[in-house]
Amino acid sequence: MSKTKPFPPTLKQLLLKGNEQIHPGVSVDCVIFGFHENVLKILLLEVKQANIWSLPGGFVLKNEEVDDAAYRVLALRTGLDNIFLQQFHAFGNPNRSDVTFHQLKFQEYGIKIPKDNWLTQRFVTVGYYALIDFSAAIIKADSYDSTYAWVDVQKIGTLMMDHNFIVEKALETLRTQLAYLPIGKNLLPKKFTMPEIQKLYETILNKKLDRRNFQRKMLGFGIFNKLNETRKGGAHKAPFLYTFNDKKYQKALKDGLYGSW
Amino acid sequence: MSKTKPFPPTLKQLLLKGNEQIHPGVSVDCVIFGFHENVLKILLLEVKQANIWSLPGGFVLKNEEVDDAAYRVLALRTGLDNIFLQQFHAFGNPNRSDVTFHQLKFQEYGIKIPKDNWLTQRFVTVGYYALIDFSAAIIKADSYDSTYAWVDVQKIGTLMMDHNFIVEKALETLRTQLAYLPIGKNLLPKKFTMPEIQKLYETILNKKLDRRNFQRKMLGFGIFNKLNETRKGGAHKAPFLYTFNDKKYQKALKDGLYGSW
DNA sequence: ACAAAAGTGTTACTTTTACACCCATGA
DNA sequence: TCATGGGTGTAAAAGTAACACTTTTGT
């Protein structure tokens, strides 16, 4: 500890009185996906003092719906509201506790967290994944003064605690749901091209798809509007732009893309 | 209160010291499916004093994996071990608290639960569903002296708190997973006939299926062994018996039944 | 012998896959 | 003018859906 910063009252309050406002033993963690330059990325925060990266997460307030806690975290971090956010799994490993994380955080202020403080107990965390429009998000690091980064899902290093596992599970869920949910709306800008959404699907599935069959299938879902504009840019024919047909998109979200059986 | 029973020390301990052993604010609830006489049923417990039915559930111990808590509840209730048990959703409504339930329970012993006791706070519950062989289960009601019943999923009345919602969600999950998981192994006896498993599928999907197409599809999965025995009984041709091919079943559980994409 | 339900196969239809040629764009 | 990548259509293959007659069993 080179220098001890003044302990912010809010942090102190968190430590001593947090348990009065915070639902005990439960947290939320968000795997926030964005798609940028044809790469699927997730938003990570760095715990500077601990020199380790983690998922954006937070506590659940007493009297707060757990889903709302996740929305709160998402809005706090991205400035975005009204987003595709989906719970995918609860993680209940008995070793999941943020002891090291919190100790390092508070250590910075010359504070040692007392034994048996509510903060150091095991937290069961509920995992959510969000699909956001990369270009619309304005990321904020948190009061714990972390920094952030968008990291290619293919190149994620070692994360805090079981966060790598959580990301894996989120990806797995996303892959599964791709088959029956209209993914893309929130990951892509309003107007997008077929090659763009195809790239998105290929990235998520980690697999090349046939251009023509992909387009036929996608259009077959009937959830797109074809615009009379093209996106110029490359040394090739300019692809058409599409938007999601909101009404049909909402229906597909509810009913799924296939009936099966 | 006609007569107050002696307050059992274990219950008293639960009230006063439970928070020392129990992970705060989190519980598990199990939707236990069984298939009997061609009807899909779930196991419900009656809270006698409250005259209301509920899902079998329980607390999570400190240092206990949440999944293990669900296994514990399942084993406690059914005597069964090594069962298909799957987490499907966490329920975090801020109103979910067992206040009435617990009050009525303790009232029976002439005890009023103090305000702010750990028992009466909101619990976030993690929902699990299990598929069990109805004929193999030996059901135990719990120390809270409830009684139990297997109830047709089509005829479930009003349950405690949000338990109806939990059951709905479990059914929905089961329906979705039917498309890519080999359901049936745990719901059916070791040997079963095509008409039996078809009935099971029809019940879960709430839809009639074509006998011939169903059989072709099922057998196409390659996870059954056809036996040289038939099940006699009705005034009609005796259907053949099948068993699951364990090796291929396990593989299908892991990889799913289709590849898609 | 009759009613009830199971065994079995074929044909039409739909969906998926594989594949090739032409066209607009920017360098 | 050329390289790049997008637009488009068709034929073969696989999978799904629809459908009828025969067989076994118990009464």
Give a written overview of the molecule.
The structure is a homodimer of 261-residue chains. Chain A is an alpha+beta fold and 261 residues long. The first copy, chain A, folds into 2 domains: 26-178, Nucleoside Triphosphate Pyrophosphohydrolase; 192-255, Arc Repressor Mutant, subunit A. Helix content of chain A is 32%, strand content 26%. Chain A has 7 helices and 10 strands. The first copy, chain A, has helices at 9-21, 66-78, 99-107, 163-178, 194-205, 211-220, 246-255, and strands at residues 22-36, 39-47, 52-54, 57-61, 84-91, 124-132, 147-152, 192-193, 224-230, 240-244. In chain A, the strands form 2 sheets. In chain A, strands 1, 2, 3, 4, 5, 6 and 7 form a 7-stranded mixed beta sheet that branches. A 3-stranded antiparallel beta sheet of chain A has the order 8-10-9. In chain A, strand 2 and strand 3 form a beta hairpin. The radius of gyration of chain A is 21 Å and the shape is elongated. The model of chain A has no long low-confidence stretch (mean pLDDT 88). Chain A binds chain B through residues 23-26, 60, 62-67, 69, 87, 89-94, 121-122, 124, 126, 178-180, 205, 207, 209, 260-261, and chain B through 23-26, 60, 62-67, 69, 87, 89-94, 121-122, 124, 126, 176, 178-179, 205, 207, 209, 260-261. Chain A binds a DNA duplex (27 and 27 nucleotides) through helix 6.
